Every structure is written in C-alpha cells, then in structure tokens.
Amino acid sequence: MSDTTYLTAEGAAKLQEELVNLKGPKRQEIAKRLRLAIEQGDLSENADYTAAKEDQSFVEGRIIELETLLANGKIIDEMKREQGVVNIGSTVTIQEDDFEPEEYMIVGSQEADPLNGKISFQSPIGSALYQKRKGAVVTAETPNGKIKFKIIDVQ
Known about the structure:
Layout (H helix, E strand, L loop, with lengths): L4 E3 L1 H31 L7 H25 L1 E3 L15 E5 L6 E6 L10 E3 L3 H6 L7 E6 L2 E10 L1
Parallel strand pairs: 1-2, 4-5
Antiparallel strand pairs: 3-4, 3-7, 6-7
C-alpha cells in the first residue's frame, strides 16, 4: 500500500484546515515572537528566541508533513469497495464471545482514533479484519494477546 495516505473526506478537510492555520496565523505569530526576541538583543542567551525558533522548526516540519500527506492522499469515501468485504472506509460490526457487539470504521493510520470507533487498517484488529467477509471468524494478535471475534456486519 506504498506511500498512499488513506483519508476520509472529513479527515482530509481537517488536515487541510490545520495546514491553512499553520501557513497563515501560526507562521505570523511565530514571526512576531522572533522579531520581539531579536529586539531584546543578545540571542545567545535569549530563551524567548530559542523557544520561538524551536516552535518555528516544529511548524515548518508539520507543514511539510501535511503537504506530503495531502499530496499522497486518497479519499477512501471515493474508493470502490466490494459489498460485504472489509476494506478501508468500511464500517464493521464485530462481536467477541459473549460481549456486546462493537462497531468500527476502518481508516488510514492518520485518522485512527480507537476511542471514537476509528481503527487503522494497519492496526492488529484492522489488519485481521481487512479483506474478510461478513460472517467470518477472525483472530487478531494484539499486545494483550490473541482475540477472536466474528464479523457481524460490513457496510
């Protein structure tokens, strides 16, 4: 799955919004902080200058990262998916033994948020589910050991 970044349309919009903020207001804020620190004189022992330069470095790095992610992005909402087969963008209902069923959306790693029901197709559970069909019994190797569950539904 090479360098492609898989994103939902919502996830791509959030990354784009972050990029616009970093390139505009955030860069301006850091430039202002740098100007103020430079006006204080000796930069060798100027903590404000050092902190602003570190922040500038972080922001510029994040801008490059976001531009790369968005340039290599593929919107999963637009991908063709086989009905009933787990793929990126699928919403999957699984059930482990006698526990309540759980629902997860399979997403790219940039959007993974397990506490909010979004798991990466590269995670232990996501990769165990990937390309499996409704009704399959799947075993996932997790950091806490193996778990076995059944795919109840795929949308």
